[in-house]
Design a protein that fits this description.
It is a single chain. The strands form two sheets. Strands 2-1-5-4-3-7-8 form a seven-stranded mixed β-sheet, with helices on one face. It is α+β, with helices and mostly antiparallel strands. It is globular. It has a single domain, classed as Glutaredoxin. 31% of the residues lie in helices and 17% in strands.
Length: 204
């Protein structure tokens, strides 16, 4: 009996460590890494994966949410980004990584309402169980990852250099990265500091 309790304790500790290891933002992909695909539920009820885009030349993966003031300021810019690049082969996939038990305004149902209100043209998907954002290493909303056709990470960071005012942007990092990829060269800069709210997850 004593051995059973010891074994149960050790298994519990192991599972706790494993769970904590999964939610470890900031230790994910670096520029040059190959990203894994995912399958996440969109606000239209469909499952979305990068592999769904058979003719894609690359991917713009944006971690964002409903409630962060920075994300709200970028909503129109993200929509415009998708409209600008999707037909050129670089679709936007926006992922809400927040735990809705911490931020109720970031629930799946709230996502559906927000997407309809704002007329999102891009897939807005929910990272249920928070399995994807730690793999990427996202820490903020918004936080963008640009991948090439082979899902190699080419750029990580901010969308542009002015989170406050779209009219005052001097450098659009996404535009720069896509233009570089189209030319077959590496973006410069290849990474910038993402400015936004911290991703909400339960800390053990």
């Amino acid at each position: 009996m004593r051995q059973f309790f010891i074994l149960s304790f050790l298994v519990g500790c192991f599972l706790s460590v494993q769970l904590h290891a999964e939610i470890n933002p900031g230790n994910g992909y670096k520029v040059g890494d190959k990203a894994a695909d995912f399958s996440l539920k969109s606000v239209d009820g469909q499952m979305v994966s990068l592999s769904d885009y058979k003719d894609a030349k690359g991917y713009i993966v944006v971690f964002t949410c409903n409630t962060c003031p920075f994300s709200v300021k970028y909503e129109d810019r993200i929509n415009e980004m998708h409209q600008k690049y999707a037909d050129a082969g670089y679709p936007v996939i926006a992922i809400n990584p927040n735990d809705p038990s911490i931020k109720t305004g970031d629930s799946y149902d709230a996502m559906k309402i927000r997407a309809e209100e704002k007329g999102f043209d891009f897939p807005y998907v929910f990272d249920e169980g928070q399995k994807v954002f730690p793999v990427y290493g996202a820490t903020k909303t918004p936080h963008v990852y640009i991948l090439d056709q082979d899902m190699i990470v080419k750029y990580i960071g901010a969308i542009d250099d002015n989170p406050g005012d779209a009219e005052m942007v001097d450098m659009n990092y996404v535009d720069n990265a896509i233009a570089s990829i189209q030319k077959g060269v590496n973006p410069d800069p290849a990474s910038t500091k993402a400015i936004g709210c911290s991703i909400k997850y339960k800390k053990s």
